[in-house]
Amino acid sequence: MTNLDSAFLLVMKSARRGCIFVYQNSIYQNHVLGASSQTPGKDFPKDGSVAFIKLMRLEDSQSLRDELEVYKMLAEAQLGNTLRAPRLLGLVRDESGWVFGLLLTYIHCKSVTLSHAVKPGTSSPLRQKWAVQLRSIIYQLHKAGLVWEDAKPEDFLIDMNQDAWIVDFGGGYTEGWVPKLAGTMEGDQHALEKMVGFTGI
Asked: Does domain 114-198 have CATH number 3.40.50.1000?
């Protein structure tokens, strides 16, 4: 488990919230609590890069723990850039030290999900590209020992280069996409085939 006290800290004041955002290079912590739900958005760390802030509600503490564990495993798997998934850059905490969000790598996608990208006029080569990318992403996750769980088209983002990215590792269940096998690799495969079918391939 990462020692948060020894982690490198970068502190930025937020006039909008009146709190302190703490960006750290640690990827796991045992004591996790959330804050009230707010709309996630972009932020600009002092190094000039763009990051995505995913804020969590107090009742999402277990989901936050689960998501942190996935990002920890992703980092340990050392998949590099072969897996199109956001990486955890740090934790967002208030002045009391409570964690209420994740600082993630930003995906330039204009919030377009696979469910919105697939349209009647979408070309066959593009549909084929996404189907191949979906299979590759799930294969890499399973190879790293990870299960996606809540698999659905809304959890794939399509970036400005028309590439698919997997997002949302908080777990859960969406009726109609994953059967009772949810939370297993077999369940992921079932949902994957349904999503490939959703692309029209």
From this structure: no
